[in-house]
Q: What sequence folds into this?
């Protein structure tokens, strides 16, 4: 037991804060403090940064909301909502405005067109003031007409 407690380098050791180790601990504390300070500065500086959503992802979310929530077709016999089936009667400015709450800083237009010309009339709903855009996003959908028949169509999102 005496061998385990005895220091082989000599018994004149001053303990935990000896002068030869004191400067090492001071430098170590300063280094760790600098690392923690740098980490806190990086975290605080990036707290207010805003992650931007790519236009195509934003348009895809708006199209999914329009097709599956705003203009969704409800089957009158089963009372089930069919995915990616649009009720043409619901494609109105009022319905779109109520669905999206019209708090968007940017205006956009949603247009439903038939794949085969003459299947149903082209219908448009818009939020805010329309303006010309070079980019439009589209998705294939099925359109339920007034008589209950379903035809293929396209829904376009124009920012």
A:
């Amino acid at each position: 037991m005496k061998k385990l407690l005895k220091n082989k380098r000599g018994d004149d050791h001053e303990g935990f804060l000896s002068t030869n180790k004191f400067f090492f601990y001071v430098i170590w504390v300063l280094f760790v403090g600098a690392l923690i300070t740098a980490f806190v500065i990086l975290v605080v500086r990036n707290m207010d940064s805003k992650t931007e959503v790519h236009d195509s992802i934003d348009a895809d979310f708006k199209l999914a909301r329009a097709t599956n929530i705003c203009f969704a077709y409800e089957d009158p016999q089963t009372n089930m909502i069919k995915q990616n089936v649009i009720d043409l009667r619901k494609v109105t400015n009022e319905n779109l405005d109520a669905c999206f709450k019209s708090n968007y800083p940017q205006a956009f237009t949603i247009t439903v067109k038939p794949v085969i010309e003459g299947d149903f009339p082209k219908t448009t709903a818009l939020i805010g003031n329309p303006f010309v855009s070079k980019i439009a996003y589209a998705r294939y959908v099925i359109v339920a007409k007034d008589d209950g028949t379903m035809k293929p169509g396209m829904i376009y999102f124009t920012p």
